[in-house]
Amino acid sequence: MTRDIEEIIRGKQYFELTSDEMAAVKDYATNQEEYDEMRWFLTNVNETFASEKIVASPGLRTKVMRHLENSQKRAVAAPRPLREILFPSGKHFFQYPAVQLAAAAVVVIGVFLFIGNPLSDVAGSDADDLAVNDVIEQDKITGGDENKEAVTDTATASTVSEIPNPTGVPTSELPNNVAESDEVLRSEADGVADEQPVEDLDELKLSETEEQPEPVLIFSSDRERSEGLKTRTDELEKSGNITTAGGNTNTGYSEKLSQESGESKKQKDNVDNSALGGTHGEVVSGKEYAKNDEDGRGPEDQKTRLLDNEISQKPDQGQAPGADDHRNNLALDTIESISLEESENSKDELSVMGSSDKSTVEPASTKVSDGQAAPAQFSIGSTTELKKLFWTVK
Amino acid sequence: MIPPHARNFDHVKLLKKEYLTYSDEELMSLYTTGDGKAFEQIYDRYEKFIVNFFCRKLWNDREKAEDFAHELFAKIIDRPQLFDLTRNFKTWLFSVANNMCKNEYKKQEIRKNTSYDVPDGIQVKDTEATPDIAVDKKGFNEMLKRELDKLGEKHREVFMLRHFDGMAINEIADTLEINEGTVKSRLHHATKELADKLKIFRKAMI
User: Fold this and answer.
1) Which of A152, A244, A269, A352 is the most exposed place for a label (fewest CB within 10 A)?
2) What's the predicted TM-score (pTM) here?
3) 3-class DSSP state for residue A179?
4) What value of ipTM does the predicted structure carry?
5) How far is A86 from chain B (nearest CA, A)?
6) Sign of the CA dihedral running A291, A295, A299, A301
């Protein structure tokens, strides 16, 4: 506004002023005389200042332009600092290369973290396949002899199942006489190992490579059974401990298996059932496993308990004529029932063992004649009673 | 934050650049991207103003004024990012020059002749006046210098920026970092006082 007032004063005469312009110049001139003096003063000041301005020498421009050229050469030659590259001036925040690179890094990391690495999944699947194949190969390599025996066992088991019951007592009615025992004699370790799931066999195979298990002995006839019982009885007499009668080589293996079956009972029911249900070959296989089993008693345990009570109570009732014969008959019946059931179970399990394509083996529950699944348990009261039993048989 | 005048500038790059039509701020934005000709245009616009400003402020020392002008333009060349694109370039340039003069004052510690003197070697424009009028004109100039010296520094600075450097009220306010009302008040006071002192030459010169 002030500039406008000065321009108005310099450009117009007093009588040319409008009412608005007159009001604007009122601060500088209130009448025509003052207005003319002000107009003269401003005009002469501008003329004086305009005439007294200097002109810069040409050397100044030359120096400044030379400085400009040198600066541009340095800018081209020298690389820009990293900060200017990542955070260039005159751009928005999301246009900074640093921000864009950070966003890309976050996306890549997020993909690997939350979606997962597809390469690792592929590798994992390959590893699983290789592991399965490895187990099969190991099975073929280490268990070659056992497979042969298994085939033989299958044949013998079928043969045994065809043997008629010499006692004439139904197997379902046979009592189990050793249910109160603290030690549970389990069936053969090889059968248990074969019934283990494939993934559980890795650990067992390792122990097998160190210690070869004793071959399974299954009898196909009464003669062989009596001979086997005789042999085993001799061994028990020599060792004095029935739990170690299977041989020292299998002791550690049996303990390990007992611990494993006790710890992972819930997770590996099929393995436990097969191990506990392995009534076949407790005595004849030579691989006994001691275990406290208070919970897994079934009908057969009750049978053995009844038999045991019957055996133990008979002498207490006095030395009636024919009491020893009665005891011997009961013992023989017990052993017969054990052997018969064992042969049936062996047949079932051997048929499972023959199918190598199955990754897991179904639990081998002890089957009685009426088709009910009996608990996988066979126990003998104590070593003393077992010795009495064998002595009686002998 | 990019000022509006700098945002719509890229499309002009593809065309023939008419630097004369660009504003000072657009030229500075161009120079920050490496356009040397933009700086040349800025230099051509302000060389005369800056040299005269330094000459007036630095005791009418022409050589020192050119040295200071070279130093100021070298600063702009080396560090163009010092200029805030949101500001007015002219006021920013003169404020930088004014600060340089203040630093020089402190360095010299002695305030030399800050009166308005016509530098040596500068020919006063020949008005083809008669000798009497020329004498009166010379007397007016000398009287004007004396009265300017008599004015206070603040009033003299505003008056010189307004009439010698041709700045507007708002530009003076930005350069001196004072409000416009103060500028108007100081300018009115200086103008009225000088006009009252120099009116004696009016009758002789007319």
Assistant:
1) A269
2) 0.44
3) coil
4) 0.77
5) 16
6) positive
Window A:63-92, CB contacts with B under 8 Å: 63-65, 67-69, 71-72, 75, 89-92
B119 Cβ neighbours under 8 A, 6+ residues apart: A52, A54, B55, B60, B61, B62
pLDDT in tens, B140-189: 888 898 899 888 889 999 999 999 988 989 999 999 999 999 999 999 99
Nearest to B66 among A2, A60, A65 (CB): A60
**Binary contact (A49, B164; C-beta < 8 A):** yes
Q: Say if CB A295 and CB A262 are below 8 A apart.
A: no
Query: Contacts of residue B188 in chain A, CB cutoff 8 Å?
Result: 2, 27-28
Provide the residue count of chain A. 394
Specify the CATH number for B115-206; select among 1.10.10.10, 1.10.340.30, 1.10.260.40, 3.30.360.10: 1.10.10.10
| SS3 at position A41 | helix
Sign of CA dihedral B29, B31, B37, B38: positive
Q: Which helix (H) or strand (E) holds A264?
A: none
Type of residue at B165: D
The class of domain B1-113 in CATH terms is: mainly alpha
Q: List the single residue in A with minimal CA-CA distance to B163.
A: A46
**Span A267-281, pLDDT tens digits:** 544 444 444 444 444
User: Residues 7..36 of A with a Cβ closer than 8 Å to B: which?
Assistant: 27-28
- Interface probe for A, chosen from B133, B148, B192 (most Cβ of A below 10 Å), is B192
A384 touches chain B (CB under 8 A): no
Domain parsing of chain B, residue ranges: 1-113, 115-206
Vertex A287 angle, CA A283 and A288, to 5°: 70
